[in-house]
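Ticket #4471: structure output looks truncated?

Reporter: J.K.
Steps to reproduce: submitted the chain below (449 residues) through the standard prediction queue, then opened the result file.
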Amino acid sequence: MDRPDHVLPAAVDAAPLPQVINHTQWPSQYFQHVDPFGEIFHVMVSRISYNLRDMQADGQALPVPQILSTQDQVPLCEADDYNGAPNESSAWQESDYAPYKPQCDVLLAHAFAYAPDGKALRTWPAAFRVGDALEKKIQVTGPRRFERSITSLGTLSAGDPEPATVVPLVYELAFGGPNTIANRLALEALQANPSLNAEQRRDIDKALAQCPAYDDFNPIGCGRKAAALTDTARALADAQLGGAPAAARRQREAQIDAIVRPAPQIEAYGQPWRRQEGAGDYPVVGVGPVGRWWQPRRELAGTHDAAWKATQWPKSPKDHNYAYWNCAPKDQQIPFPQGGEEVVLVNLTPVGSPVRFALPTQDLRLLVRLNAGPMLFATMNIDTVVIDFANGTLSLVRRALVAARADVRQLELGTWPAGTGPDLSEYGAEQGTEQGGSKAPAKGAPRHG
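Returned output as attached by the reporter:
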């Protein structure tokens, strides 16, 4: 036997591998994708990164970020990056290995809103713009929290915001929640312990039953059911401590009492949060990736039911919408930029005045050589723009797809000016197809190549 006996045959056959050549210095990767109908696509993805700290003005006096050296290029993101524990905290970027994005995601990574002139304020606006396709304004406040007071008869109520000079733009500070994910996971881990006695198991089952349901639109936010933060912490402590000494229990109770119950600090511009408690009665405002299992993104993934598992797995459901792979908030999804679009940042840097620069242009294309003989070019669309404030970089992720039915012999990634040769989409049109020899795509699927 020349391999482990637990290896299973592949559930989906791959397409013949073309020869892949990268003539550039930029991080790039080739892989294959199978759509819900079994059609296979060749995918090429590249990430080109630029320096936002040392920009130079072009002939129009608009600064242009300078490309980073080969050794300083930001690598392709291989897995979702979180600010804390996965799925319990905000993600600041997602894996670059998405099969296809119908639009371009514009993401602000490690972003903060800075008070104008550095003066502490209770509330102020921040905004950014990309060409004519995107203009987003938000309102932020200083820290505010839910507290018990005599005037509210001991119930929790949100206080007024404190003055602040900077606010992190993370979903933890947007409307939603309560973020009890860590406590729930800890209780579930205890529940799985086979050594529990009947009384302990009943207590843990009761504690889990009392945990509030996750908010579909922002399970890590704040503003909803603030008391659950301390309630679930206390239930977890009771399950963990059991017969612990009284001193340990008093110490843990003091820690629970000290838990801060934050209120939302990131608001929709012109629509201040007014202590709404219900689900879905106030928008979730953010500038980074929306969670893969949050709504409204989750419903785009399609129907993963027993019928899908029995007849379709491992392919995506037939009602899968490729818009699922766009991770930015809906108002930060734009048509593929071409380069040259003006970017404006207001109150998103410590600099008092707005920051302006142009998206760089780059003649990056994919040369496709077919076994039938033609040499064609596929466009490397810019489908992700990441402005990383912590590292002072701008990353443009570009992607091209080519249908395996086109019978590809070789793929070459390089820089060729527009008009150098015929476009692959034109070849597909001449063949009477939308995919260069492939059947019509699924909903939201790629339409070139």
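Triage note (M.O.): checked the attachment and the full token line is present. Confidence is low (pLDDT under 50) at residues 429-441.
Status: closed, working as intended.
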